[in-house]
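Before a colleague's protein record goes any further, I have to sign it off. Would you go through it and say whether the fold makes sense for this chain? Take the sequence as given and treat only the tokens as open to question. The record follows directly below this note.
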Amino acid sequence: MVEIKAFKTYQEQIDLLRYRGCVVDDESFAIDYLRRKNYYRFSGYLLSFKQTDGRYVYGTSFEKIAAIYDFDQKLRNIIIKALEDVEIHVKSIIAYRHGHSYGPLGYLEIINFNERHDHIRFIDKLNSSIENNKNALFVRHHRLKYGYFPIWVASELFTMGMISLFYADMRVVDKVTIAKEFNTSYPYLETWLHSSAVLRNICAHYDRLYNIQFHQNPKLPRSYTTYADMNKRSLFKQMYMLKLLYSDYRKPWNDSILLPLTALIETSDFIDLNTMGMPSNWESALRWE
């Protein structure tokens, strides 16, 4: 096994950056920034500037990388807002459909799902979520008064990952009905919800969004190829997916998501839109008319 790297002080971290070709003009700013952000997290934004010899591209500066880091943080906040709206909407639609078809406690019966549903795993996840939220007023109320949680309450305890699995395990007739709410087909919506769950985890752990290729690959309509490569697993593809999940809420998407995204990009220096898969007409592509 390779020997673990030695601990480095803030000054040694700065010295290492300089040795690799990163320009550090304001050492006090750089040390304070690393103290607040962590060198390991910060260095991830330097990867695209690293050459084969281990040194950074000429002109790479600490201030430039810090600006990209700050942009990514603000971008993540915009996406989290979009994911929050999507999560609440999907929970509401799924709870209504399942409750309407199978009653308030139908989700506790394995027969109300398709054959691939792992009911034991699902119940274990739900019980863990109940336990983790045991001090929430609505959880305490339903535990003490009823002993059970109707689907419209239980769904509030679902993580985005649980929502994705719940939808994938529903009967086809139910998935088709729900998919119509999002103006798509159920195989597409399955991939959107899975991708949303992964994207939410990335955001929840404050991981990098800028200049990465996503592992998940949501299915998008052929019209997407008008704007970008269907096979490119870029941030733009994730944003386009979120746009489609807002299909019934077009004005909120334009006002609450696209508008701040546009303002952020227009006021950010050093940002390379190509690294996010953003085409030249990205703004019109993401706008609902």
